[in-house]
Backbone:
C-alpha cells in the first residue's frame, strides 16, 4: 500500500492512542511509523471510496466491502464471472448496485493491489492448502471423504 516516495509529517497522539498504535504495529510486525502511515492511507481511501473498509485477514489487511464478509478482490472475481455486469453481481449478492460499483471503483483505482490478491488466490491449490491445513479433506462430489481416505490407506499398503 505504501510507495517509495514519501514525506515526513510529524503528529502528536494522545498517550493511549500511541500505545494502541504500538500494539497494532507489533501485532503486524510493522514499525509504529509504518502502522500510522497505513492507517492514514486506509482512512483516506475510506473517505474517497464509498462502502470500502479495511480488515485484517489471513492474507494481511485487505480492502473489503462494508457490511459484508467479502474483500474487493472477491467481488471482482464475481464481476469477471458475470462479464462486467454489475447489476447481475448485485442481484447475485442481494446488494444494491451502488455497493458493487463501489468495489469496481476501488479496483480501478488500485488495480495492482486487486490483481495481486486475485493472483495469490488463483495460485492456491489443494496441495498448498493441505500443507497449511493438514486436516483438510478434499470434497469430491459423489464420493464421501471417508471412502476416499480408505482408498488412500489401502493404496499405501
Residues:
Amino acid at each position: 500500500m505504501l510507495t517509495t516516495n514519501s514525506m515526513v509529517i510529524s503528529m502528536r497522539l494522545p498517550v493511549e492512542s500511541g500505545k494502541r498504535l504500538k500494539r497494532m504495529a507489533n501485532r503486524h510486525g510493522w514499525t509504529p511509523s509504518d502502522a500510522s502511515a497505513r492507517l492514514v492511507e486506509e482512512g483516506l481511501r475510506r473517505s474517497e471510496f464509498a462502502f470500502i473498509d479495511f480488515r485484517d485477514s489471513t492474507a494481511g489487511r485487505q480492502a473489503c466491502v462494508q457490511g459484508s464478509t467479502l474483500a474487493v478482490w472477491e467481488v471482482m472475481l464475481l464481476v469477471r464471472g458475470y462479464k462486467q455486469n454489475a447489476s447481475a453481481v448485485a442481484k447475485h449478492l442481494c446488494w444494491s448496485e451502488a455497493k458493487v460499483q463501489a468495489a469496481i471503483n476501488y479496483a480501478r483505482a488500485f488495480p495492482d493491489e486487486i490483481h495481486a490478491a486475485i493472483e495469490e488466490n488463483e495460485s492456491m491449490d489443494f496441495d498448498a492448502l493441505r500443507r497449511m491445513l493438514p486436516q483438510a479433506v478434499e470434497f469430491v462430489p459423489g464420493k464421501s471423504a471417508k471412502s476416499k481416505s480408505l482408498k488412500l490407506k489401502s493404496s499405501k499398503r
